[in-house]
Amino acid sequence: xRFAVAALAASGCVTGLHVTTPASVADGAxxxxxxxxDQTGHTVALADELQRGPVVLVFYRGYW
Amino acid sequence: xxxxxxxxxxxDDSKAFAERLGIWFPLLSDRDLxxxxxxxGATSDANALPGVTVIDRSGRxxxxxxxxSKDDRxxxxxxxxxxxxxLGTHGPDAATGGYAAIDRAQxxxxxxxxxxxxxxxxxxxxxxxxxxxxxxxxxxxxxxEPREAPLDVDLEVVLRAPIWANxxxxxxxxxxxxxxxNDRGPNGAAQAGLWFAVSPTWSVQLxxxxxxHAHDTLGAFATVGIARLFRVR
Lengths: 64, 233
Fold this sequence. Notes:
The complex is a heterodimer of chains A (about 60) and B (about 230). Chain A is about 25% helix and about 20% strand. Chain A has about 60 residues and is an alpha+beta fold. Chain A has a domain at about 35-65. Chain A starts with a helix and ends in a 5-residue tail after the last strand. Chain B has 2 domains: about 5-85, Glutaredoxin, CATH 3.40.30.10; about 100-230, Porin (Beta Barrel), CATH 2.40.160. Chain B is built from 3 helices and 13 strands. The two termini of chain B are about 25 Å apart. The chains are: A alpha+beta (about 60), B mainly beta (about 230). The interface between A and B is large, with 55 and 70 residues.
């Protein structure tokens, strides 16, 4: 886990940003539900992950 | 704890990225950025903003960080510290304010065996311990030993040396008090042991020591126990 976080943080996926639309989630609020496909094609649902414990979401700009 | 990385990449790109970096955790494809927009925001050129959101097991957002520039991205140590603090996990010098397991009050239940008058016996105890810094726990303790001392009513003091990034400690415990039945009179006990947190809210402890009761009843014992940890500040 710690290695993974470090690897992502070090991967340098951030570049110059444009005008932004701020997020609508606030600290302390319930996290909005979602389900998205992973790199193997399986759908991962936030609710399922929360059944197993806390979740860290890392938003990154993609592979380029 | 789960780690989910989310981008606008399609699954094939994510697969290539995962293979290139040896990533084992899910890289989720948020093609229309609908999730990214909600959690991190998005730029006018249809990119998600880099950011991190920590969600506790009840589904509550407990930490958020969104990068506003290239150099603003949260560093790995800062993120790990944020995770420690917001989820109550323990980490190297990262957890403050009562989140770290070692900073929490404990209700301990221990049980084991021992020797009194050269005969085997069972022992058990229940203690409520309050932390006074990293090095000291104090609180009431009820002890049980069926042969000589069915009830000890004690005050316990635990001196401890934190190890393993404050997730464990070597302990020296001293207890003293009164035994109202059978071997009636004052009692005292000394024990040494190892305590380690298995989560922010549970720990396990192993102890061995000696107990002295009125009328010179000296016993030796070894116990294993669990503790429920409570945030106190």
